[in-house]
Amino acid sequence: MACRDVLTHDAHAPGDTAASFFDDFGDFSLGGQAVDSSLPPTEPVPLAPAPWQFEMGDTASRRIDTHDPTQPLRFDGMVLRPWTRNDARSMAEAVRESVATVGRWMDWCHPGFGVRDAIDWADACADSLAQGKACEFGLFDERSGRLVGGAGLNQFNTSHRVCNLSYWVRQSAQGQGIATRAARSLAGYGFSVLGFQRIEIVVAEGNEPSLAVALKLGAQFECLARNRLMIRGKPVSAWVQSLLP
Length: 245
Hints:
CATH topology: Aminopeptidase
CATH class: Alpha Beta
Structural class: alpha+beta
Helix content: 10-25%
């Protein structure tokens, strides 16, 4: 898949087995940038020109006109957009705030996470987006512009049309359904625009809040996979769930 600079859409609610996955999609509207105004302006990372071309497996290349990925998309009071260097300070603060919860399951969330780490992350996300390897986004409150977390589609397997869905929410914003809304948005985009036929959600055994998000999306529990993830250098088992279009 030669994927160029993609954004997000919406998915479905749990228990709606009689309805199509796409019945619950919401519409997006363009809005202004949500950035950390406390940081000086930085040069934007170059992005490929529109329209972006997607190649999926053995199918013919197809062109899809999407919105400029430098512009955020809004849904359910939230904004998803690609990370930029301007988000570095806000991200560092959100990560350090969340060590007790997110840090329990994510190695990158630790007390020493700083602005330099966040800048490196934004640069890596821009590269993977341009190369069609992943779509990682910052998650912001539409009203205040506050960074509340992140979500992404990654680990693209274009031969089999499969990818992974991940999400995290800063500690002070947890318990408000934010992760579910973001995950629903990304899953819908992965199916309706990118053409994936399976999206996996892999959750470390014991991470009940993340598992709850997958179940709210209506994901099908498939197995407890042994040694599926590495956390702090040790292999751990993980629950594997899947979403289908």
